[in-house]
Structure prediction request, 466 residues.
Amino acid sequence: MLRHSLLKTSRTLLSHHQSRTAAMACRAMSAKATAAQVHNHALSHADVDSDPKTLDIIDKHAKYTLTTYGRPPVVFTHGKGSYLYDVGHREYLDFTAGIAVNALGHSDPEVARALFDQAKQVVHLSNLYYNVPAGELAEQLIEATRASGSFEATKIFFSNSGTEANEGALKFARKVAKLTAKPGQEDNKFGVVSFTNGFHGRSMGALSATPNPKYQKPFLPLVPGFAHAPFNDVNAVDSYVTVETCAVIVEPIQGEGGINVASEAFLKKLRSRCDEVGALLIFDEIQCGIGRTGKLWAHQNYSHECVPDMLTMAKPLANGFPIGAIMITDKVAEKIAIGDHGTTFGGNPLGCAVASSVFRRINTPEFLENVNKNGEHFKSQLKALESPLIKEVRSKGMILGLQFKVDPAPLVALARERGLLIITAANNTVRFVPALNISKAEIDQGMGILKQAIAAFEDRVMDVEA
Ligand SMILES: Cc1ncc(COP(=O)(O)O)c(C=O)c1O
Prediction:
């Protein structure tokens, strides 16, 4: 049963990572699972040591829920700060934070209190009525953004997720283009330009802007009018962004794409080209925004010329309670009318109250300074790692990528079985997006485990290649 599950995990890794090296590494991984059963005393968190209850829970889960993720045989029941605990009471250090979501760590007492206090008042009203927390959160976000940079945001639309925020931003861009296009061009100005290795979500519009064949191919045809330009290629911008373009959507720092940091010249060029052709520039800061880079917004790491017309956010905004938002300038807001867009849950008092409390804590000079300081420490620790398999470290604040020369997918299990949770990203990269309040000691603890996992990974790669 467990062996079946391990083999299934290996097969999933194979289908997601087609390189020959990964295939060899995964074969070695499943073969060695048997050895691990014999020598599992060497691993503090061996998959084969999973609590028997774990396997029952997984069986039930698999029987009734649709499998769209390859998951390891671990079930987490609770967390505290940067640690998660499984059914068998094993402690894991979490360098993933729910994929850049739990910025203040797990089961934070203030987040719990904000949830409880608001739930006692009112959870949901719909957008038929005003509510206090949504207005307060909108004011906080707009005023903090205007005070800390040159993005002249004036209005917010709340959604429930990052994908929905992007979907709304794309719709807004199409509407604005229809109303502002030169006479005779109203029906032609609907093009959207996104970039290689970008990730914007999986609904039809957001997926159309996510040029990954693995995600797109099963669902073709997608929304018409989408083009994908090379990321960070200043010279290619003019030919992709034309008078028929209504929007350009870009992550200032690509997360899923492998922690690729946009250059100043690239963002500047996107801004000036959008102005030339009358297109709107959307910054997708769903993964890199809200303090992750040590600034409130990732684009604030660039000059004042690198500002968007719309900014989308989600993940950490309420520390795990689902919420997203589109922040826009007047240029966009004045073209959107009642009935153009809507949502049942978006802007609900519960999510907004939690987000208000989270945002207030993240957006302080002390908190952001600490993200910078610990981000630098994290980076220096990654740079100090010595392995012939490592290619490069890329980072900004607390979003970090460790690129390998081979597919590092097997490293995820090797780290987990030693008590450290990590995730991969595209281009042979391991991604680190821990809680923003992770301590230096926790970073160091994780680095110790990572070193051991990389050593085991080296052994496997060597074994396979021998
Ligand atoms: C940059 C970026 N945009 C959009 C999304 C989609 O957000 P969600 O999963 O909340 O719909 C993600 C999620 O990983 C993301 O990283």
